[in-house]
User: Fold these one by one.
Assistant:
Number 1:
Amino acid sequence: MSTEKVKREPLFSTKYRKLLTIPIGKNNPITVQVLGVCSALAVTVKLEPAFVMALSVVVVLTIANVLISLLRNGIPPRIRIIVQLVVIAALVILVDQVLKAFAYDVSKQLSVFVGLIITNCIIMGRLEAFAMANKPWDSFLDGLGNAAGYGVILIIVAFFRELLGSGTIWGIQVIPQGFYDFGYKDNGLMILPPMALIVVGVIIWVQRSRNKELIEEN
Amino acid sequence: MFSNRYIFIYSSVMVIIVAAILSAAASFLKPYQERNIREEKVRNILASADIPSTKADAEDLFQMHIVKEIVVDLKGDVLSVYENGKLQQGEVRAFEINLRKEQKIKEAYLLNESQKAPGFPLYVCEKEGKTYYIIPLRGKGLWGPLYGNIAFDDDMNTIFGANFSHDKETPGLGSEIATSEFADQFEGKTIFDSDMNFVSVKVVKGGVANSNINISHGVDAISGGTITSNGVTDMIEDCLGNYVEYIKKQK
Amino acid sequence: MQDLVNIFVKSIFIDNMIFAYFLGMCSYLAVSKTVKTSAGLGIAVIFVLAITVPVDYLINKYLLSAGALTWISPQFADVDLTFLSFIMFIAIIASMVQLVEMVIEKFSSSLYNSLGIFLPLIAVNCAILGGSLFMQEREYESLAQATSFGLGSGVGWLLAIVGIAAIREKIRYSNVPAPLRGLGITFIITGLMGIAFMMFMGIKL
């Protein structure tokens, strides 16, 4: 580990804080870099699986980033993609096994989507673009930041879909019974897969209206 | 920079390390995973006979209430009996039977492709001095498999209780079959008509009251969950049908 | 035979990779700017899915699933290697993509020129790994069923990406609110297309 380097520069210097915070907002992996959308949306019907999914990605991405960063000088360039895939796949299998052992109900809801973390482009992207060229501590923060940026979007989407679609948050009823007596109905459409896309579309809209420099040409 | 030899050794070492870690993790976690699956099965069986359980006491309650496990075949003969903690007859314990496998064996058997006869599990439950018969169900919903258990009174005709679960039906629509509101409708329904013909219990779209189905052989479907509801109807008819001969023999 | 057609139709329309499971969204969003390139990518996806799903089916059946190794010796009846499936599937996919690329390059340079650039992209396309994982989870019963599922999923993916590309070509001339341009509107249109595809759900197969 590069402890000397860390000692010379404070652990949370501006540079390090930026590594962590930029991917959460301005350079968010989902809404700006368009990476990792695949596995993101199918698990956002309820908050709980979305949270577990986000947590799994945080664990996998952070550990993979640090591991690859530690190994970066020894990995032969010709087989680096395979090495990265093996590291990711091994971590994902571990996460999957742990979920099956200790969070059985959630792992059933996530079904194959845990496995699809392997092909989550955020992870491959960060390993290739960042961890291969940076020190472990930088990579740790970068991994954490990107995974958190991914998780934030997941949780926002899941929050709205669960609130509007089932009237609950984390399984607890929040819309009072009185509303239903007046004829309020849960919006069944929110639960269906396509609405996840539309909610993300709206999040992008809001983010880009506030931050004009992200607007695309067409 | 790196020779072929280095690449070869590097990848071999990597593969060995990864394989070792994964196998260790898998064998370490396996007992926990199996316990989860077992626990879920036990709790679902108990729930159909209206015995509430928690993760901690499920196994004990199961041993206390489920006094006998029987395996029957399509002709109504008993293949095995498990009682007092050991097999009294036959080779397999009903609890160990994989319903999905038996359904496949049944398909092949009915098409005369194989001579192997399927066996279906039946649990005998004692609660507060009364005897109930519990039959496990398995079928197909919209997105994946459906599961269930139905408990009968000792006439093996009147339903005492039922519970259903699913892997991934549409939340809020099809997934409502897992609620007690849906399952409670089954209480008191009968699966045979007055002439002892098997009629099953149907899940009726638009409500039983508006259909020509006898009120004692139908329940109301979930609105918006048509395919899941049909899946439940098919599952009940298909699975209970396997026991008709056995039940008739008991009369 | 009928079950094969059922699976094929079902995986195109009802269990569409994009609209029902959002698989392969990354390349779907990145490559769908013109119809021509997206059709190329779509065909490559069909190609790879139709090869990897059956191969992974065999791997799953004869190596990974519980009791699969009995063909070597009955002693292995208790061996369950399912926990290795992710790593095996991704390895098979990566090597298959490589193999397909080499074969195409050798035998048809025109096909290679049109498909070649897409093949490396595909190794990390979630739709491909997703295809294998769904094949495993849904427990298809024969090689033919698995192949039919792989083909159907690929065709469904092609349908989706060509559809969105055509719409995006048109929408370039429309007055979309500035913050929605590009990514935002693509997400929303995909959502609407997904809703349209949901009507296929009632089809009983």
Number 2:
Amino acid sequence: MPGKLARKSEFVPLVLSLALAAALSAASGVFWTSANLNSLQASIAPTAIMAFGMMLCLICGYFDLSIGSIMLLAGLLSGKFNDWGLSTPAIVLFVLLAGLAVGCLNGFLVAVLGINALIATIGVQYIGYGFAMTLWDRNMQHRKFPGDFIAMGDGQFLGMYYMTWVMLAILVGLGFFLKYTLSGRRLYYVGGNREASRLIGFNDRRIVFLCYAATGLLAALAGVLAVARIQSPTQYMGGGVHMTCMIACVIGGGSFAGGKGSALGAALGVTFMSLLTNMFNLLEMNTQLQNVVVGLTLIAVIVVDGYLNLKKMRAMGMI
Amino acid sequence: MTAAVDEFLKISGITKTYGVVKALADVSFSIRRGEIHTVMGENGAGKSTLMKIIGGETAPDSGAIELEGRRIRTFVPAAAHDLGIHMVHQELAVFENLTVAENIFPYHNFRKAGWIDYASLHREARSKLDLFGLKTIRPEEPLGSVALAGQQMVEILRCIVAEPKIIILDEPTSGLNDREADLLLGILKRLKDEGLTIIYISHRFKEIMRISDRITVLRDGEFVATLENTPELSESELINNMVGRDLSASLYRIKTVSGAAPDAPTLLEVRGLAKKSSLNPTDLKLAAGEIVGVFGLEGSGVGKLSRMMYGLEGKDEGELFIKGRRFAKINPRIMAAERVMYLNNNRKIAGLLPEMPVTDNLSLPVLKRFSRFLGFLDFRRIGRLATDFIKAFAIALPSLSTRPANLSGGNQQKVMLSICLVPEPEIVIVNEPTRGIDVGAKTEIHRFLLDIASKGVGIVIFSSELPELMSLSDRILVMRDNSVVGEVGAGDYTEQTLMRYAAVGSAATGGE
């Protein structure tokens, strides 16, 4: 039984996260304080929601570098819509629609026009960032959001932020979708062997398109929740988050080759990344070293995975 | 009523061209309900194209396919599946990232309240695997950890569980050993007895004679004959049908006398080149000015030999002697340094920089020669070199800066051959030098090859076209099952002899 668990792709990020949490509880007195746990939640939940989208793309064999821009766009649009005096439900609805629209643009470029995902999503990243920054004005951060908007970020239920519950709900829903529905399984067929998936009659383009659309929607949701949590939009939101998510997904069992990964893996990968940041903060270590550790972990995970694969293929006499 | 049985799948007047190449020309025949119908022919005879059309992967230019009297109009895989036509590809279309069970049932027909029911999925997969006697494959294991033969069986199972009317198997036994092939043939016989119609492509005569009800032979994209597999049918009859071209009227002049001088020094010698399960120990000798042809059907190991000789693929054993010097390690860099050049068989994949000007392509292997002070390149001399080659090879070019991507296949092939010859090699290994190009370019390339051989260059030519080999080579080696099984010298060439070696491994006529 333990052998079976160890073969799951979620095993690595789970062990890494538990090890970090254990180390932190031993090394720092403040790790288990509610202030620290709250800040951990506020960092994990939005990032994980975005990582879910990234994981969908990775399973199909693609990726999305524009999610950070979409998050920023969602944040600044929230501020703009608030300036216009829209109600909270209207703000959320329109921001999500905007995210969905950008996601559809990515999907159109990659799945319909067939543009390389790197080029297409970097293009959209710049377009999204530039457009978002035209909305920015310095006074935005001083204007107040309505109380029910702030409550989305501030409110707690059973000791956890609403956004954490939202993230967990998506985790469970997406987990079931990917494991127990034909639509979810199709992603793995497309990512595993695109040509073959076409031959068995799957509409690979539509599947990839929908994954990008969902990714845009999820990034916008993360943006709204993050703004609600910090109570005002900032122009720094979403910076570098696409890389964080991609690294988290790969540590969590995803692969650029496609056909692998799970929602739980994405969430655990993000948890590991957030705990790592938390460790450097709590132990007052040089934060630049954090990047070194992230890079080393990423490469170690890939090298070990590749080595095990190679050993397996050698054992089977394939190479 | 017999018409409906006899013309279960009716193929009439199918034509398909790719560029200048006619893959299929007005092919017509019918498949009976419930038979195993083998389609055979040399490489390039048009078998695969025809199967792709029936399987809905490509549309014909003209002609009609009728299933049970109803004409098929949409050529997409999904439409073919809906009609009950499934195809198992030679290059497997499987999902190594998913489990065996998910590969057998990609549509996940087993649900409980809408959710996929993995317990039933695995149970059903288990029972299907048992049905085929595949006891060692577990439904839950990832397909990537199953051996090739097992993956093949899994793909066939995927087609079978869809309860098709017709399945098409493209060389299903090429990756299998005898025992596995035996198992597969047994299964096919059983499926046929249950009423399934099977279209089968293979090069293995023994298998074909064992399981086929009828055999259709294609040659150069044309229908030759459909033969009943009666006990009287002989291998010779099949071979004659496969090859029987009238060469007297063709553009090829069959070489009757070796062009190589008998006392010419040996340029290249391959000794005991081998790799587990892809090439048995192979020897080959090439003298200066000699052209040695290598012939084999698909899966005979010709491709492996050509790649391994140039170090494009690793070897387990064997060594190479170039002008008497021994090389235990073979890689393209060493070969190029020893003035051995290699012409790839696929100009699309390797051999050309399709988006760079022709001059850059031509000067690529010899850039060092044009490197001046601080590494600056002497473009004037590069241009002169390119002009010389373009003239010598009669390459039709709008200008020197034209990119090969915009050239015809024949001109691309000429550019590719020029690239090989720019460094003035002493030995050239060419692989399918005229695949998919028009007759004019073909004869020109043949002329160049004969010309450089007469100047002392040794050439090893790998080709699946017998007439081409027979008109160029001083002797021809024939491969089958990863070994060289025969050698025929100029003067003794007939298509029948060569094909007999390639198909059954010996030159002797008569039954088995």
